[in-house]
Automatic annotation (TrEMBL):
Residues 18-376 form the Beta-lactamase-related domain. GO terms for molecular function: hydrolase activity. It comes from Lentzea miocenica. SUPFAM superfamilies: beta-lactamase/transpeptidase-like. Keywords: Hydrolase. It comes from the Bacteria. This is Serine hydrolase domain-containing protein.
Length: 405
């Protein structure tokens, strides 16, 4: 397998593990990018963007990064909070009055960011292509009764997160989520990262290679088993009532790539993910571009909720909008995926295994994207091997599967 790009000698083990992903762990096409003190130290890509045509993964290849998009959406909220234009402790109704229906008037903006809002899915049947109609989804969520009392528990808002936060951002700024992200983040930082992909970039998108549920020995997470056997459950509502978005192949449609979906719709690559986190690893600014004040970083990195996730069914941990390290290796094999990194780090995985994060203490940013999905929602062995190699190169040690300086 031909690997392209550059890698500083200190991080040679990252390249070795990247190569092993292709040779031993089923990687098809992927990219990984790491910055240290703002400078790229790893920038690698390789494999096939499309095995059906033989198209190689190139420097320009981009791919659907699924829930890594949640971090981009959360960053937009923190930018506004840092400027004093969004109060994370204010009721959602301060910005979005209609949201107060059905007892949701006590929901705070921070509850949306920490997956405590009680709206991980719509309960009324959504029509076909509903996720491509912003006004339909936001009005549906505004009118719905929460599935638990907001603020009393947390459960992964896998598909609704972006509509909830995005509508608050739209009400506060007058810009759509994708417009605000491009104006304040991806444009100034010159990132390959879009929520709403332009037509001319469609040829650069590597098609998603989904998990084959008939693959011998495949272990499906309990989230998917519950959804398939109990469609009325929280996992079932989240994964089945989405207007067909989760149907095979739909996420690769042009309609899906065009839509602004701040929970799951982002298109990027490793360079784009790491580039978004680079200022956050450096106190909020990079190359004269300030995203947030340094005082905002703790709001992004300190754990807000932890424990058993009401939707996913396994332990999860979140700050205000970002995933924190979580060690689920003690669980049965089908649920043992986690996110093993230092406590100071914050970021987000994407379904099938992509990852972006910042570590302000180590002053690093990290991005990993791929087209061949693993079976879970969190980080599988391919991405975790790269994270492990990175921290070994930095001289960290591992205890109880967590990394420490």
């Amino acid at each position: 397998m031909s690997i392209q790009g550059t890698c500083a000698p200190q991080f040679a083990e990252v390249r070795t593990e990247f190569e092993r992903n292709f040779a031993e762990r089923g990687e098809v096409g992927a990219s990984v990018h790491i910055t240290l003190d703002g400078e790229p130290v790893v920038d690698l890509w390789g494999g096939q963007a499309d095995p059906l045509t033989g198209q190689p993964w190139s420097e320009e290849t981009i791919v659907h990064v699924w829930s890594c998009t949640k971090a981009a959406t959360s960053l937009c909220a923190h930018i506004l909070a840092s400027r004093g234009e969004l109060d994370l402790n204010a009721p959602v109704t301060h910005y979005w009055p209609e949201y107060g229906a059905e007892g949701k008037d006590t929901t705070l903006v921070r509850h949306l960011l920490s997956h405590q809002a009680g709206l991980p899915a719509a309960t009324s049947l959504l029509p076909a292509n509903a996720f491509y109609d912003w006004d339909l989804i936001t009005s549906t969520l505004a009118a719905q009764k929460p599935l638990w009392q907001p603020g009393t528990r947390h459960g992964y808002h896998g598909l609704t997160f972006g509509f909830l936060i995005g509508e608050v951002i739209r009400r506060a700024t007058g810009l759509s989520l994708g417009q605000f992200f491009e104006k304040e983040v991806s444009g100034p930082l010159a990132l390959d990262f879009w929520m709403g992909l332009p037509d001319d970039l469609e040829p650069h998108v590597a098609p998603t290679i989904p998990v084959d549920p008939t693959e011998p020995g495949l272990l499906l997470p309990s989230l998917f088993i519950t959804a398939m056997t109990q469609p009325e459950s929280l996992p079932g509502l989240m994964l089945l009532n989405n207007g067909g978005y989760m149907a095979p192949g739909e996420s690769d449609s042009r309609a899906a790539h065009t839509a602004e979906m701040g929970a799951i719709g982002g298109i990027s690559n490793a360079r784009g993910l790491a580039g978004m986190y680079r200022p956050l690893a450096l106190g909020g600014t990079y190359n004269g571009i300030r995203l947030v004040e340094e005082s905002q970083i703790p709001q992004m990195s300190i754990t807000a909720v932890s424990g058993q996730d009401a939707v996913v069914g396994v332990p999860s941990r979140f700050s205000l909008g970002f995933q924190k390290q979580v060690n689920n290796t003690h669980l049965p094999a089908n649920d043992a995926e986690g996110l093993l990194m230092p406590e100071e780090a914050f970021g987000h995985t994407g379904m099938g295994g992509s990852l972006g994060f910042a570590d302000p203490k180590a002053r690093i940013s990290f991005g990993y994207t791929m087209n061949k999905q693993g079976p879970g929602l969190a980080l599988n062995s391919r991405g975790q091997s790269l994270v492990n190699a990175l921290y070994r190169a930095l001289g960290y040690h591992q205890s109880s599967n967590t990394w420490y300086a």
